């Protein structure tokens, strides 16, 4: 995969998230220190003024064709269940203009203030990725077929699997991109339907 240079203006997101990682396992009803993007005045994202963040800044243009620099949203801390469906899982917080626009231009959301806030865990795990939604999942599965998540971290974007969904039989689903891994760190393929 080609590594693209992150715009300097987004380095503060990467540094902030490296210093303030998302909570791993959480219990619904308890409060946690969560890295958040506080939207600029007169700006919301999916109707939200405070967006809990998961993982770090990255782009996936070589893998699935998503060319914008983005961060995933930690749906475990969102109050409204309507924001926890596959649309939110599939629509991360984009920080740069997406294809076919100028990839070097920053989205207004890139001006968001970054802060750690106490947030109530609304659910202990994110929703499951519907197999039919992620048409690109088979591409990721092929790419990481021989990779290992034995360390408990998804090798695609280094998101802790403890932040993901327990799928049964010791299988955990990465909350970032939906890849599933067993107890030994082996990839578990999911059938993708149209």
Strand order of the largest sheet: 4-3-2-1-5
Percent of residues in helical segments?
10-25%
Strands, total number: 9
Number of domains: 1
In whole angstroms, how far apart are the ends?
27 Å
Rg over C-alpha atoms, rounded to the nearest angstrom: 16 Å
Alpha-beta classification: alpha+beta
Q: Number of helix segments?
A: 4
Shape type? globular
Low-pLDDT sequence parts: none
Beta percentage is 15-25%
How would you characterize the largest beta sheet?
5 strands, antiparallel
Mean pLDDT: 84
Task: Give the ordered list of helices and strands.
Answer: HEEHEHEEHEEEE
Report on the structure:
This protein has 194 residues and is of the alpha+beta class. The protein has one domain. It has helices at residues 11-19, 61-64, 86-90, 137-143; strands at 31-38, 50-60, 66-73, 93-94, 113-120, 165-168, 171-173, 180-181, 187-188. Strands 4-3-2-1-5 form a five-stranded antiparallel β-sheet. The chain has a four-stranded antiparallel β-sheet with strand order 6-7-8-9, with no helix packed on it. The longest helix is centred in the N-terminal third of the chain and has 9 residues, at 11-19. The model has no long low-confidence stretch (mean pLDDT 84).
């Amino acid at each position: 995969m080609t590594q693209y240079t992150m715009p300097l203006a987004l380095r503060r997101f990467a540094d902030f998230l490296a210093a303030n990682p998302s909570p791993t396992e959480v219990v619904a009803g308890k409060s946690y220190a969560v890295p958040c993007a506080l939207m600029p005045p007169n700006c919301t994202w999916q109707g939200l003024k405070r967006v809990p963040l998961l993982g770090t800044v990255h782009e996936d243009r070589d893998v699935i064709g998503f060319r914008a620099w983005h961060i995933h949203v930690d749906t475990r801390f969102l109050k409204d269940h309507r924001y926890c469906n596959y649309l939110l899982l599939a629509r991360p917080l984009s920080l740069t203009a997406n294809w076919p626009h100028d990839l070097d231009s920053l989205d207004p959301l890139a001006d968001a203030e970054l802060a750690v806030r106490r947030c109530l865990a609304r659910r202990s795990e994110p929703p499951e990725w519907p197999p039919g939604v992620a048409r690109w999942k088979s591409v990721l599965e092929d790419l990481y077929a021989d990779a290992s998540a034995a360390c408990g971290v998804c090798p695609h974007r280094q998101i802790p699997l403890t932040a993901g969904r327990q799928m049964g039989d010791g299988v955990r689903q990465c909350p970032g991109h939906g890849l599933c891994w067993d107890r030994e760190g082996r990839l578990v393929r999911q059938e993708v339907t149209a």
